[in-house]
Amino acid sequence: MPTELTVAEHLSGLDAALVSFVGDARSAGLDADVPTCPDWTVRRLVAHQGMVHRWATGALRGEAVDADAVEASGAGSPDPVAWLAEGAEALVAAIRDAAEDVRTVVFLNDAPPPRRFWARRQCHETTMHAVDARSAALGRYPRGVDTGIDPRLARDGIDELLAGFLTRNHSRLRCDDPLRVACRPDDADDSWLVEVSRRPPVTTRRPDPDDLAGADVVLEASSVSLYLALWNRSDEVDVAPDLWGRWQEQSPIRWT
What is the secondary structure of the chain as a DSSP string? Predict the structure, then answer.
């Protein structure tokens, strides 16, 4: 399995992220800027996340969702933060109620079965946007210690990004000269090697130590700090500026 976490553990992570999200959104205020999402306010962040929750609920239940209309409704709600929480509650119920063999869309490489996929995806979706809300409350990019994210969950999120998102045919992470990037949390045995070229990246989980040692770039930090950095939510990880600029330009996951 691409993830060792259970559905219950992912839902627990989603719940923790939502609590953090709601608290920081109210603390920062709806008109506050979001440092980790340039040009976004907290209102837009809340509306976007609430839309994604409702869209995912629709996917699980086989119901069409007009994403633009839902997001506009959230932004114009009398209490967008309460609206966010209501959508998250419906999403959790949809995941819990879904059959183990439910058939619905999944869109990542090496994905777990649909019910587990959606629990995992929405856990990390909500966690990252909760980090965005934390950045609005802090007025800066957060550090790992600012978030309270569980390191095991963080490593699962690193894996979803490196093995699930970046290896897709339409991912944008490319380079003319082959580049081998090692990602290694300093508080666990997990590691990943990402081979970047003109073709879609290839990610190897727990590669041979010699392959890690021979990497062109080694990204090493705590699990949570590495998770935030790879998802472009932190500036804690020290890496060559030219590589980091390319990563920040080509690796972001965008709603389409």
Answer: ----S-HHHHHHHHHHHHHHHHHHHHHH-TT-B-TTSTT-BHHHHHHHHHHHHHHHHHHHHT----HHHHHHHHHTSSSHHHHHHHHHHHHHHHHHHS-TT------STTPPPHHHHHHHHHHHHHHHHHHHHHHHHHTSPPPGGGT---HHHHHHHHHIIIIIITTSTT-----SS-EEEEEEETTSS--EEEEESSSPPEEEES--HHHHHT-SEEEEE-HHHHHHHHTT----S---HHHHHHHHHH------
